[in-house]
Specification:
Two copies of one chain form a homodimer.
Chain A: E1 7-13, H1 21-33, E2 38-44, H2 48-52, E3 56-58, H3 64-69, H4 87-99, E4 102-109, H5 111-126, E5 132-137, H6 153-173, E6 180-185, H7 192-195, E7 210-212, H8 220-234, E8 237-242, E9 260-262, E10 268-270, H9 276-288, E11 292-295, H10 300-303, H11 310-328, E12 334-341, E13 347-354, H12 355-358, H13 379-385
Parallel strand pairs in A: 1-2, 1-4, 4-5, 5-12, 6-8, 6-11, 7-8
Antiparallel strand pairs in A: 2-3, 9-10, 12-13
Helix pairs in contact in A: 1-11, 4-5
Chain lengths: ~425, ~425
Amino acid sequence: MARRLKGALVVGQSGGPTAVINASLAGVVDAALQQAEFDAVLGLWHGIEGALKEELVDLSQEDSQTLQGLVGTPAAALGSCRHKLTSAEYERILEVFKAHGVRYFVYIGGNDSMDTAYQVAKLAAETGYEMQVMGVPKTIDNDLALTDHTPGYGSAARYVAISTMDAGRDLAAMKTFEDVCILETMGRHAGWLAAASVLGKRDEVDPPHLVYLPERTFSEEQFLEDVRRVHRALGHVMVVVSEGIRDADGQLIGAKTGPVQTDAFGHVTVAMGLGVAPYLQNLVTRELGLKARFNRPGTLQRSCSIAASQVDLEEAYMVGRAAVEHLLAGESGFMVTLERLGSPQYRCTTGLARLEQVANAEKLMPAEFINEEGNMPSRAFVEYALPLVGGPLPEHVRLKGALVAKRAPAWPER
Amino acid sequence: MARRLKGALVVGQSGGPTAVINASLAGVVDAALQQAEFDAVLGLWHGIEGALKEELVDLSQEDSQTLQGLVGTPAAALGSCRHKLTSAEYERILEVFKAHGVRYFVYIGGNDSMDTAYQVAKLAAETGYEMQVMGVPKTIDNDLALTDHTPGYGSAARYVAISTMDAGRDLAAMKTFEDVCILETMGRHAGWLAAASVLGKRDEVDPPHLVYLPERTFSEEQFLEDVRRVHRALGHVMVVVSEGIRDADGQLIGAKTGPVQTDAFGHVTVAMGLGVAPYLQNLVTRELGLKARFNRPGTLQRSCSIAASQVDLEEAYMVGRAAVEHLLAGESGFMVTLERLGSPQYRCTTGLARLEQVANAEKLMPAEFINEEGNMPSRAFVEYALPLVGGPLPEHVRLKGALVAKRAPAWPER
């Protein structure tokens, strides 16, 4: 049995929220409050900023109903942050941790947050302050190294899959009036989320018809050719595009131009980068003369409570609990990982990866998860991702649509 | 008992799809297939365009599983259209209807579609062709006259309410990094949908904080002042804005960013432009120096299958069935309406309104449903709209967040 440090445990949430990051918080808090070892169970108010400002929440004062309700409440109940720390700030954090007898630090976040946790652990070790640190993975982007996938991804993937099914049906119904719908997903460098749009697709007619990922260079010519081809075949085109796609020069498509505005003097002023979907909508309209619109759910894809994946919720809770259990086992300097167990039934258990190996690394989609043309995820990707979205996706029916024989005089097509 | 015409029944779907318009179709088809009176039960492929092209679907050939699955499948299973008919086209429609012995016409749609149904009925009467016509209401905009509300609205309202709750939580969690989130809803002239964003709001902190509706003139100065005030009080501002807001000169705010398009009816379809949310995001950033982002779910708000309201699904089915029952009772020239029955329990029954009274009329939000400042729906609106979203909205918890006493040296705020 490992020797146990006597002290407080502090937990924080960091980076972009997810639909299930509060389930991880619940896992940490439930496990920690069950242990008499911890002098206190504290929360960082808005992540590491709460440490700097010494805004620490006493989590033992929360009632059990609130703690239970964390599972299912999206975003970050403790508040989150995006804050790049200076070395003076790392020292400040240790100062605050020492003042409150914090000997256990759990940080829930993405790769930047794992770096933060790693740096705190390193500084503590260098300055001779005994402390154990554990990271808990979180990101809808699914881009963390050394874990099969990340909590948060399954729910965002479920959201994108269902949204694509629904918006695609809407477009198909309107195809005599509208031609192209472009759904923009998050994902600055990795295409995991945009790729999830295919998870409800059963056949060629089902949406999406084209998916563009940051892992492949985006060519406007090829895109227009793709859209033209699908439109000719189906009469409508559902496109899903990651916000992070770039051209051959490495320039973000979404940063190219916003809509032009004119100022009081009639001078054209270009608005700030409004994202890739509006740009592509204009491109399609201008170059192909097709009627296009865009959907940009924005933060809804990472916060949608009703699209949360049951598998994701359970795993998010599990990695939170596991972090505390590993601390109690004397371990430090790790991020809890998810390890997929063998088929046929999908199952996951937890593992550990060194914080410094996760920190600042980025897991992109491997080549075998993308088709040769670079405009659609592969079957292998679907097999990987489908279990993560939890329960079955909606089953939308399609009418057989048997046309009756014509009896009226011919009518000239417009 | 009314004398019954012997002939076929034809049903069509028209205008922007909804999450429940297929439930209305199911109601019509279920009721019609039970009746031996109808020689055939036909569907118009893409609305009235299916009549012009003589593309008529034999709905008796659909299997029962598909018909059952219509309830829960979003968009328009028969296909929809937006088509402004010429007088030659009205004659063509009658020609096709006569060729197939159509004596019953059910058209599911909004006010333009009710006008189409009315014109078909009128031409039939003028030319001595015996036919009965019935309209079934449909629109997420809830802007049809003479009905308590429209099928489609409850589900879109549920979507907007939940999306606002979720995105608002996301923003609150990120408030040390982001300041303003702008959610753009549909609603070209009526604010019913944007107003629905308040249905999950329990207190001042809950989102949304500001709601702008087309019923009130939009002032950029007042908007910026509102945002500044809320930001000072809460540190973050969740704004919901209808795509149709206009300035004092009647100019669409959303048209300031990019080209607007017009549909076949000459209506400006703001959704095809780049919209109001990107414009306001730029405005907030430029004028207040606040970090802003926008969510624009677009067609997701009218097609989201997992946000469908149970009440809405049931009522949509009910009005479809009622249309056939009224036809069998010999009635013609009406739209089926929803009539709210007394409290305390919400209940609705169906009624009838003359097609020509619904056609081209538009029901805006009454003054008592909007607060004096014009930036928030009223309590009376909530009482009206809350029953329509069906089951309870998600219950998001909020931590008490009891801060522990400070013990570390003070840290200078940046």
